[in-house]
Amino acid sequence: MSIEEAIELLKQHGYKTTGKRKDILAFFSRADGYRTAKELIRHLEESYDGISFDTVYRNLHLYNDVGILETTELNGEKHFRFNCTDHHHHHFICKDCGKTKEISVCPMDAVQSDLHQYEIEDHKFEIYGLCPACKSA
Amino acid sequence: MSIEEAIELLKQHGYKTTGKRKDILAFFSRADGYRTAKELIRHLEESYDGISFDTVYRNLHLYNDVGILETTELNGEKHFRFNCTDHHHHHFICKDCGKTKEISVCPMDAVQSDLHQYEIEDHKFEIYGLCPACKSA
DNA sequence: CGCACAAAACGTAATCATTCTTATTTACAT
DNA sequence: ATGTAAATAAGAATGATTACGTTTTGTGCG
Question: Does the annotation place A123 within a ligand binding site?
Answer without folding.
Answer: yes
